[in-house]
Amino acid sequence: MEKMSRVTTALGNSAISGRTMFCHLDAPANAISVCRDATQVVVAGRNIFKIYALEEEQFVEKLNLRVGRKPSLNFSCADVMWHQMEENLLATAATNGAVVTWNLGKPSRNKQDQLFTEHKRTVNKVCFHPTEVYMLLSGSQDGFMKCFDLRKKESVSTFSGQSESVRDVQFSMKDYFTFAASFENGNVQLWDIRRPDRYERMFTAHTGPVFCCDWHPDDRGWLATGGRDKMVKVWDMTTNRAKEIYCVQTIASVARVKWRPERKFHLATCSMMVDHNIYVWDVRRPFIPFATFEEHKDVTTGIVWRHQHDPHFLLSGSKDSTLYQHMFKDATRPVDKANPEGLCFGLFGDLAFAAKESLISSDANRKPYPGGDRRYPIFFFKKPDPTEQFAHVSSALSVFETDLDSNRMDWFVKTAQLYLLCGKPFAELCDHNAKVAQELKRPQVSKTWTMLRIMFSDPANLTTPGLNHNLSKLGTMPLMNSFNMKEMSSGMGTESRLERSKGESRQDNIHLEPGNSHASNNNEENEETEGSEGQAEYMFCDAELDDDDLYSMENDNQAEEPEYTLPQEAFQLRHEIIDNPSAPEHLQQDKADSPHVSGNEAEVTCLTPIESFSLISISQPLFSPHLPASFFCPIVREMLTYYAEQGDVQMAVSVLIVLGDRIRKEIDDLTQEHWYMSYIDLLQRFELWNVSNEVIKLSTCSAITCLNQASTTLHINCSNCKRPMSNKGWICDRCHQCASVCAVCHHVVKGLFVWCQGCSHGGHLEHIMNWLKSSAHCPAGCGHLCEYT
């Protein structure tokens, strides 16, 4: 172990010196505690219970308290504490529900003193009174706290927290009779040890379990709490209501919190999972740690300052089976690596830009921001010691405001509220959303919805009034050489059509199969097409056509009809016909057998050279009359990417949901998840909670669908007997009273029920709101000061 640095701190008549060092343990540690004179530390865990001496250069094992051939579960420790008044007295919390005290002054090998087995489940915390030698407090998973007098063999008081489990208990450093308890339901309770029947105060500190709490050693009114919501909060308990005065956001659940001695605004924290580091925070600057200890390779389970008046040494135990002594001068300072530049967009398009003061101090046009001057460090310390203050890095903030009217986001809110994403056929969803976009003056988005409807809808359903492409008439729209699409698709490739003389009727030239139902209404459809006042309707293939190449069939007998010939560049030139050859044999047979052609007409099987003709035999359609949906998927994918890159994730996610399986497989899951998260974040910023929840429900990404499944458990207490309610109904199993009675009108609440988390009373939402407008006390008369937020 390399020597890093060395300090000597004067504490009255004693002196503490040492360096950063560590030792390997036999097993992972669950908790540690240090004796009053800071010379020894006890380490407790599931398979370890030892005392180490803190020498100047190293840890030295002094005593192993796990004795006997078959150690009992009493040695499996969840917590340990060394009495600060009696140097030979220890207490441990066992995982089997036992509270054990240990007397190091015993001459025998077994140092166990007393055993209390009143708890039914694991004991999470034990705490000695700071000034009373024989008073011990415990908190258990069974929801009870017990106060023990070590001169007696049983507890003297039992406190019911009316919750599932107690995670931490701490005696106040200044108030003799007060202790705080934290619970898994997010509440913190303050108790007077003289009144075990009811707590003095209760407030909701965190959203989720509160794992730890710690009273400030100097300021009697400050209580720090840490919870699963990754926050450390400091509460002022001197007021009528617990007031949150500081809040620190960490990156993982907070397992331990300890105030730093001799530093009013500093506290140390460690995490329950994920993060292995120990952080020291200045609560006045909560966004970046003041110092970091990064030695442990696994989760840190216990932290304690070596001496209650020495801020320079911190001891820690971990699941990596190591015990460390950290010296504060060796800590990492995250602020030294902090980036002084920042960029952020506001909700309404404002842009904030922060940079080093030296970079933009020469800008004479810069105006002061009305939010206050931030060019100088806000936090500083009076002591000149550079290790006890933040680095003096100053940044200047520039805000670029936009015209509010030109960048309003009303369209986003209205679109989110009016869009339909499910519940109707695909075509109706597209039409509705297109109409919404059109009314909000977003024509491009509206046309996009219309095109999606055209691309992915069934052609049989495309008969809406606004759609000019009526596919039912496509049979009368020939494409080049007068070939009808319906004729080609119905297997007319074996027939040919010959151009007769100019004076003959063209009706006789069209030969259909007897079973073709199209022949009976051919004239009617052609007449309707010819006389239609609507726009001309075309179909396009890969080749580009001139207007002269597209024409409709005419069935009227005309005296003179223009001769239609193919352009020379479309087909190879035929050889010159000298004689008058007969028509192909199969044509003669077809025309002779056709019921629409007389025998005289069948004899006319030759044409003169002047009556030249173009004959094309087609056995397959030129192209499918309806393209498959997969043909458009690459285009739609590019369109969604375009909208997302433009910042309109609302359009990207809405189309993704409406199209569903038609397009979902074309886009990778990470991209979809990114779009969903961005859109949900925007919806929640605008407080569109219902729309956000609908988007989460309609998503198929597993990472998104689980967003509204977290923290859905609701713990309810009976308003009469204060016991937890079962999940079977609203009738309490203990007092057999209905818990959902309105405290104002005394009737059963059958609809929306609102209740106070402090006293469990409540009622109809409207009744409670009206009551609290004129009175702050609970309408049930319990005396609790309720607050409606």
Automatic annotation (TrEMBL):
Keyword Zinc-finger: yes
Keyword field: Autophagy, Lysosome, Membrane, Metal-binding, Repeat, Transferase, Ubl conjugation pathway, WD repeat, Zinc, Zinc-finger
GO cellular component term of the entry, any: GATOR2 complex
Main localization (coarse): membrane
Biased composition (Basic and acidic residues): 496-511
InterPro entries the UniProt entry points to: WD40/YVTN_repeat-like_dom_sf (IPR015943), WD40_repeat_CS (IPR019775), WD40_repeat_dom_sf (IPR036322), WD40_rpt (IPR001680), WDR24 (IPR037590)
GO biological process: autophagy; cellular response to amino acid starvation; positive regulation of macroautophagy; positive regulation of TORC1 signaling
The keyword Membrane is assigned to this record: yes
Renumbered residue ranges of the record's region Disordered: 484-533
EC number, as in UniProt: 2.3.2.27
Per-repeat ranges for WD: 116-158, 203-245
Enzymatic reactions: S-ubiquitinyl-[E2 ubiquitin-conjugating enzyme]-L-cysteine + [acceptor protein]-L-lysine = [E2 ubiquitin-conjugating enzyme]-L-cysteine + N(6)-ubiquitinyl-[acceptor protein]-L-lysine
SMART domains to which the protein is assigned, alphabetical: WD40 (SM00320)
Location of this chain's protein in the cell: Lysosome membrane
GO molecular function, one term: zinc ion binding
Task of the protein: Catalytic component of the GATOR2 complex, a multiprotein complex that acts as an activator of the amino acid-sensing branch of the mTORC1 signaling pathway. The GATOR2 complex indirectly activates mTORC1 through the inhibition of the GATOR1 subcomplex. GATOR2 probably acts as an E3 ubiquitin-protein ligase toward GATOR1. In the presence of abundant amino acids, the GATOR2 complex mediates ubiquitination of the NPRL2 core component of the GATOR1 complex, leading to GATOR1 inactivation. In the absence of amino acids, GATOR2 is inhibited, activating the GATOR1 complex.
Family as reported in the entry's similarity comment: Belongs to the WD repeat WDR24 family.
Name assigned to this protein: GATOR2 complex protein WDR24
Organism: Perca flavescens
